[in-house]
Amino acid sequence: MGTTQLESVPEPKYWHLKTVLSEALDSEFSVGEILPNERDLAARFGVARATLRQALEQLELEGRLQRRRGVGTTVAPPRVGVAVGTRRHVWPGAADDAWQLVDCVQAAPPAAVAAALETGAGETVHTVRRSRTSHGQLVATELLYVPAASVPDLTAIDAPNGPARARAVLRELQRLDLEGQDRAVELGSARADDAKDLDRLPGAPVLVVTTRFHAEGRTAALSVATYRADTCRLTFGDSPDVEIHHDPEQRAS
Amino acid sequence: MGTTQLESVPEPKYWHLKTVLSEALDSEFSVGEILPNERDLAARFGVARATLRQALEQLELEGRLQRRRGVGTTVAPPRVGVAVGTRRHVWPGAADDAWQLVDCVQAAPPAAVAAALETGAGETVHTVRRSRTSHGQLVATELLYVPAASVPDLTAIDAPNGPARARAVLRELQRLDLEGQDRAVELGSARADDAKDLDRLPGAPVLVVTTRFHAEGRTAALSVATYRADTCRLTFGDSPDVEIHHDPEQRAS
To answer: Under the GO molecular function aspect, what terms does this record hold (chains A, B) (predicted)?
Structure first.
């Protein structure tokens, strides 16, 4: 990659640098390869390290680069399409569900969740923890909140906690007639424990998918799923994967 | 807000600071209020400015704070739910479409778009630019790519460019039988021109929604929409808005 003269362009310097770096990634580097260190890169392109860092941050947001502690900055593989909305109106835990059960505890949910579930202040709900793997990598963690009113026949014989309890909660949930569901996707930052599970640094950008399951005229369960934003593209619709990648450099004008 | 002793906690310092700041935002500040400057805040909480900045960045990712050039850091209003997937299988420009036409040009699309549309190298397509407003604020910009093959009856009498041309392209698109559509949501960074329209800094995190419209056994049109990630929550499903906010602090354990 040649050292392009960056002084003469009207757009922000890091933005132009990002374009040049992006082209270099395509032509000179392969997926998984470690980039030269920041000092060497900055020298090569004749820019300040602060400028270089801004450009690297953009490329990381766009999923082109991954920064991993102890490894350095590597060229990221293309994002993986993860189907979020293909099967509509299905309870969690139905056949061919993409999620794996981790455990289940009884706990008071966050205030916003309690409000949606219309549970009383401090009232505990079944909280099922699940995780989702794609191409051998953990791509999402989920907390599924199920109030006692939604699973009235859950017996004390079922294990009080853990994966067995999780299975029992999901089994009971299937008895309800699912009337509909709503989903919302928003940007969030990874909690410390999710970050650890997802192999990200705490605070890394994540995509948070909130799903409300409607039954018996109310919100019978609520799921908050946290997806890696660096490696995942969430897909909705008829086919499981949309192969188009966002290319912020090119645009009609 | 009291100055909490931050030294004794095992989690990263900025993470705990974020929790403390988040509580302070709830109890002491109102929406739109400008935060004290970084030096004063750092002194108040007895943390280094680098720690403070990390905490502020997390709160910005979560939509709690907005940083605006020339204004400072302000307390953000709750995110607005923007319906992306409620009306399924409808062509852009159908009745009660949420988007406003901006213009239309003939241009060669990005390589990934050309591949999806199966247009030849360098072949130009109708590129309709639209924008979307919610609660009086521009929340998204869109580029809708329509190959000539999808609108064969478009006449030369129609304006060659501009909003009139955009209307003509969408009118012709409605003639095709829409067989299905796929959507994908992923994290991106705002291009300089989108950033300007969306009142964000270039490179700010955005949510990129790519939609493929299927007709006549192929992808007949492709839309790339860029949503503000700081103020928007994208909703999919039966009802237009999901009122739950992600609260990364509270979790069952």
So the answer is: DNA binding; DNA-binding transcription factor activity
Taking the complete model, does pTM exceed 0.90, yes or no? Answer: no
CA of A131 vs chain B CAs: smallest distance (Å) = 15
The C-alpha angle B253, A225, A123, rounded to 5 degrees, equals: 45
Q: Which helix (H) or strand (E) holds A84?
A: none
Domain A80-235's class?
alpha beta
Phi and psi based region of residue B63 (left: phi greater than 0; alpha: psi -120 to 50; beta: remaining): left
Closest residue by Cα to residue A145 from A163, A164, A130, A160: A130
CB contact under 8 A, B109 and A61: no
Contact B126, B146 (CB under 8 A): yes
Contact of A109 with chain B, judged by CB distance below 8 Å, is answered with yes
Q: Taking CB atoms and an 8 Å limit, are B212 and A247 in contact across chains?
A: no
Q: Are A166 and A101 in contact (CB under 8 A)?
A: yes
Q: CATH topology of B13-75 equal to that of B80-235?
A: no
**Rg of chain B, C-alpha, whole Å:** 22
Count of CB atoms situated within 10 Å of the CB of A236: 25
β-pairing verdict for B232-237 and B80-83: parallel
User: Is the confidence metric ipTM above 0.85 for this complex?
Assistant: no
| Residue A198 φ/ψ region, left for φ over 0, alpha for ψ in the -120 to 50 degree band, beta for the rest | alpha
Distance from CA of B174 to the nearest CA of A (A): 20
> Helix count (H) and strand count (E) of chain A?
6, 10
Comparing alpha-carbon positions, the chain B residue that sits nearest to A57 is B203
Q: Where are the domains of chain B?
A: 13-75, 80-235
**B13-75 topology per CATH:** Arc Repressor Mutant, subunit A (1.10.10)
